[in-house]
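Mods, move this if it's the wrong board.
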Amino acid sequence: MERICNDFTINIATANGTGSQSSNLIILNSMFQMGVPVSGKNLFPSNISGLPTWFIIRASDKGYQSPGDNAHIQVLMNKDTWVKDLESLEPGTIVIYNENVKLPVDRDDCPSFGMPMTKMARGINPKLARLMCNMYYVGALAHLLGIEQDVLETAVAGQFKGKEKAIELNIRAITEGRDYAAENWVDGIPYCVESRVKDPNSFLIEGNEAIALGSIFGGINMLSWYPITPSSSLAEGVIKWLPELREADDGGSTCAVIQAEDELAAAGMVIGAGWAGGRGMTCTSGPGISLMSEFIGLSYFAEVPGVIWDVNRVGPSTGLPTRTQQADLTMLYEASHGDTQHIVLIPGTVDECFEYGWKAFDYAERLQTMVFGFTDLDLGMNYWSTSGFEYPDSPMDRGKVLRSQKEMDAVENYGRYRDVDGDGIPYRTLPGSGLDPILYRGTGHDEDGIYSEDPEVYNATISRLKRKIEGARDLLPAPVVREEEEQHIGVIYYGSMENSIAEIDDMLESTGLSVSTCRVRALPYHSEVEDFIERHDKVIVLEINRDGQMYGILRKELPAHLVPKMHSVAYTDGIPPRARVYADMILEALEVAA
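Not the wrong board. Structure tokens:
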């Protein structure tokens, strides 16, 4: 039998709340520690327990991180999805199943391996059998794929840190599962894992935790939050790491954490922190941004710095709270009523999640405005590999803050909202500095911060605000461009699509189509994005939403002669982007454009 090493996808079907996440992460971490390029996607329901959940593990020596087109190995544990999971399999898919579920495996074209997992778990601990039976498919996969036992045991110890009894019981269950498979399953499978040289500094981390760490290193002073999937673990990450990383000399905290009564209050607290000279932040998802809209407008018009992270989930309304999407982009860019325009940072990797975690505060204070971080459930709540983060080595950018009378006297004709440097950014003072007045107005105001309804004054104010945000284009992160000569077709994308683009590129190349790529990392978009479009005959704008929101923004803001070059490829179904789906849509769009 020809062996296929480090090139397969495992789909594990269980029920939420049965402890399967621990088992799945043990498999993921074991393969990672063997140096196998691996990714995991957790597709979980929006309730506490009982509903179906799937965990997709993909091994790929090429580094592909999308979920893959289909499963090569299917683990069946959940009776509620048993039939549908079986029907969806391609011929030849390996099936591993719990015999105690007592449902048939009616696929003669799929090699099947059964094990009485629940019965075996009861033999170890009847009370914990429902949870522990998942460890038997860990042992089964370890046997079939060749996952090393010592690596598995290290992963178990990491998953159940300090819980010696749990470690002992779960290792016993995994060992029994491995032994049962070795003794009873005479036929092997073509798939295997093979160790690779591993970067000793690499580790797995969720995007939300990376943002939390970046925020702490960025000097966060106040975190206000209201729980909402999929952003809650970002706030929990800040809470987890503060005692270790930000404890004051006297043992106290250097950052206030407040669980607000709702999203509106959380946004108000961010503005209060910014007004006082602190670095305030909240995290939420689309429904929270909707509720925060009025405060966001106040921040923009009164020019108070703050940071909001939106971890995008599927909408509208409650939508699919535990699925992923990129459909909040337009809302963030123009959040609130009236003419508004905001800074939006769009990380595509966990390294950028950390980087933008601290940079967001610098941009907010330098530009005196609300800055949005924009990620999604896939990047935020799944695990990704990194070799360590690049920590900020420069002082915090606090922007144009006047801290003494001498500094104020040096500013010609100081006024709270007067642009004396031509960049649209005024100087500000902070409470407690002794410099009066401390003026921030959400109503119409002139350059001195005095209330005004004069039409010319209002027009001048909103024009300056537009100039301030527009002037930040090339201050913000430049796009990541991959381009070779004689490539006439370009692909623009952003965010977590980064984790599928390499495979999409290879699929296109297999058809004879070679493309350049440009990953947008911030709005307003950098001038290099426009240059990229100028250099190509056709440009596909690739995104994970229905309406082509980045495409719409580019169409509105680009010079008119570039607009006909662009074509939208937008698709969303709640699942992390599958390369084949988007590659086929790109080919179709180009055929239509021709």
